[in-house]
Write a structure and sequence with these properties.
- By secondary structure, the protein is mostly helical.
- Helix content is 75%, strand content 0%.
Length: 96
């Protein structure tokens, strides 16, 4: 069984791959939505914020950077912030 910490790392790795072009938006979104242990370990608002960010990221991928109101770089930065906050939350709930 995959732990929430392992899934957090998988998602962080996926974001790096997305930024580097090794993973496309659709694959990253599937990866993120599949991290059920991670989402279950976090308070409910984390899941809704992640869903919102993924929806915006997928919408932005449908348009060119110029015609979209969402900057992909800003969305990726927001996903990184989400990961950072999730890591902090996991650490508070599971101190070493």
């Amino acid at each position: 069984m995959t732990t929430s910490a392992q899934q957090h790392q998988e998602l962080a790795d996926g974001l790096l791959q997305l930024r580097g072009g090794a993973l496309d938006v659709a694959a990253f979104a599937r990866l993120a939505r599949g991290q059920t242990a991670l989402l279950a370990a976090l308070p409910p608002p984390f899941a809704s914020v992640l869903q919102h960010l993924l929806d915006r990221l997928e919408s932005a991928a449908l348009f060119s950077e110029e015609s979209c109101s969402f900057s992909q770089k800003e969305l990726l930065d927001s996903l990184q912030q989400w990961l950072d906050h999730a890591q902090g939350q996991l650490a508070r709930e599971n101190p070493a």
